[in-house]
Amino acid sequence: MKLRQLVARIRNRGDGSAGEAEKPRTDGGATATATDPRARTRFQQFRDSEFIQSAPFWLPPFLLMGFFVYGAIGWNFWISLTDYSGFGSIDYFDLSLENYREMLNDPQIWDVTQNTFVLIILFTLACLVLGLLLAILLDRKIRFGRGFRTIYLLPFSLSFIVTAQFWRWMYNFEDGIVNQTFGFLGLGQHSWLGDPGLVLFSVIFALVWQFSGYTMVIYLAALQAIPTDQYEAARADGAGTFKMYWRVIIPQLKPAMVSASVVLVLFALKAFDFLYAIWGWRPRRGADILATKMVRESFQRQEWAYGASIALFLFILSLAIITPYLYQQYRRGNL
Amino acid sequence: MSEQTDPATESEPLEPEASGESFRERFRLRTVALYTALAALVVFYLIPIQSGLVTSFKTSSAVRETAPFIPPLSADAFTLDKWQFAFDALSDGVINSLLFTIPSTILCAIFGSMAAYGLTLTNWRGQTFIFALFIAGIFIPYQAVIIPLSEFWNVWIDFESRLGLLWGLPLLERRHATILELIVTHTAYGIPIVTVLFRAQYKSMSQEMMEAAKLDGASLWRTYRKIILPLSVPMFAVVFIFQFTQIWNEFLFSLIIIQSVSDPAASVTLILSGLGQALEGVDFPLRMAGAFIAALPTLIVYVLFADKFAEGVRV
Asked: Does B252 contact A at CB distance below 8 Å?
């Protein structure tokens, strides 16, 4: 290794002295000295106008995205201040905070918010732990390593609507695999998608099945960036496998963990598709979350303005997660 | 003294490795445990899919009588009827989904690459702020935009009646109005993630290259076309694969913009959500067959390009 580097370095030096290196140096020097005094202002002008010059590249996508994302959020806020419902048209000038007061007095909203938080926390933690386990198992020289990774990530490539069909069948009371396994183990049959005390956990389990492969990929990338001599050093210190991972490797995975959590939390906030595909507009009592309630209030009951106020609440929740994350990334110079 | 003990402590952990037999035994046990765990996990990740696949080929009586993970073994337990039925129900949806997924994937990639170029390989104030707005756009819960979105497309724009003349032309139908709306919507909401993907690559490109191009008097456009585009071909592949599966799998926008399962423009996920839902109960074999037809394009893309897909996920 060292010898090869040395040889390469010498060879580079040899190439440089063989004449090639001198050319660009004199060339660059000549242009710099010749144009320096006059071109300075021109260069400055050039730099100033780079904003203008680059605008054709970023401005059209920015306007399209900005209108549909930020414009729509502002529009949503405005609608939430009206009393728009049913099939009529929106009166944009009759504004009040009535919908927000209604939201505070809605007995459903607290249950739904609580469910949302339970879903977010359990789902994110389970994905982080299972994903880490998968990544550690795969981050060594094993046969078919790629094949295993492809299989574990497979559910993530499927649509929520598709996986919801699979899990409706898995959780089926009489013929589903889950109940058959439980019956076989003598644990009794349960109404996984009917019992209000169970439904949320059934949903979380299915979502973890679908998303743990995602966390695995994030961790694997981070693990592969850790130089192997750290493993060797820990080994030489006599650390066992568990101790090595706990003390040396896992602490270095923190940035990966943070960014994976942000993505997972936001996935959990919008886990609407999965719930809709199982229950339609109204999930079982224990599994109703903010996202499903928002869509139901607006698109089924046509309480548009009220739905818009729930949407804003949901937006503020996600903002509370994104803003610190983006700020931290900015401080670290990752943006 | 201490100098003498140092090598001794260093060599200690090496000793068990040197004493062959027991170490090899332990190593083999470990390997067995590792592969057992990996195989158990394979079962965990594949069983819902496997059970769905075998169920889709079963007759209704076979579904009741056999275990859900056992394939239909006898001839009278096996049927292709459900696949036939599901295909008839979903084939229009597959075409509609392709009609909006492919154009919006391509548009996303082009816009995303351009935006990333304009924000990364150039130099002006406020770049980071604009880019932060792009990133935040990835994380927006779509619930926060769907009411304005349905208002915008159904009341303000309403291509279906405004472009009424077009729908008389050959090859164009009324449903294409909704498809067009979906293309624009998916492009707009896909731009942020694609921009971030391209930016990650462009950031690693050398600034010297840009400086050199600038000194040669090449315009930004020329640099983009001659240098940046050829270098971003691999990233375009990643984006195509990732965005194709994302847009194909998407459901909420279909629900909001298309609205009805029976709409001629209904996407494949929208039709699937209502498939096999009858009063007398859920027809599971039909739903499973439908789920596989809806998942087939993404499954093919995923299995063929798993590495590229994983790369798209990573950012």
From this structure: yes
